[in-house]
Amino acid sequence: MSPTAIDITGLEYGKDFKLSDPGGKERTLKEFRGKVVMVFFGFTQCPDVCPTALYRAAEVKKKLGEEGSKFQTIFVTVDPERDTPTLLKDYTHAFDDSFLGLYTDLENTRKTADDFRIYYAKVSTGSTYTMDHTAISYLYDTKGNIRIGIKPNASIDDVTQDVRFLLQN
Q1: CA separation for the pair 67, 150 (Å, rounded)
Q2: What is the pLDDT of residues 121-162, one digit of tens each?
Q3: What is the distance between the alpha carbons of residues 131 and 81, in angstroms, rounded to a whole number?
């Protein structure tokens, strides 16, 4: 495991979700078995952490080469009031066409975030607002088990190494 990763194997949270994709189809974590899945909670107007995490994920997928088809990135919005399905699709596809942006209503957003131990809060910035949120990405192995917490400062090489480790084990 890379020096920046957190081994969270066996934790009893983040087991699954029921969220909608930009086409309105209900998606679950279980449907991605057979792939290493990265789940990140954020919002499309995030100025730094979210685009950095998605850029890193896109670069990891490129570095994986052919194995990249076995790596799925899922971006879950914590700002469903502004992150429309179209905006989520455009945002995630700006990084990679395979990335999936998911959403739900406010109540289920809170429930899902709580299920994944994700903190988020709306913070007023005058006439608008921003969102404070947890910046860790979760990696799931090909059997759907939560395994690795990726810190925001993890390098592309470290995350690629972690994904390869999960693909092989």
Answers
A1: 20
A2: 999 988 999 999 999 999 999 999 999 999 999 999 999 999
A3: 12
Question: How would you classify the pairing of strands 100-102 and 71-77?
Answer: parallel
Per-residue burial over 56-78, b if 16 or more Cβ lie within 10 Å, else e, is bbbbbbebbeeebebbbbbbbbb
Nearest to 72 by CA among 43, 87, 92, 88: 92
Report the alpha-carbon distance of residue 72 to residue 78 in Å, rounded.
Answer: 19
User: What residue type is assigned to position 13 of the chain?
Assistant: Y
Band of residue 107 on the pLDDT scale cut at 50, 70, 90: very high
> 0.70 exceeded by the pTM?
yes
Integer Cα distance of 58 and 118 in angstroms:
22
- How large a percentage of the chain has pLDDT more than 70? 98
| Residue given tokens 């990335």 in the structure block | 99
Alpha-carbon gap, residue 94 to 71, rounded angstroms: 17
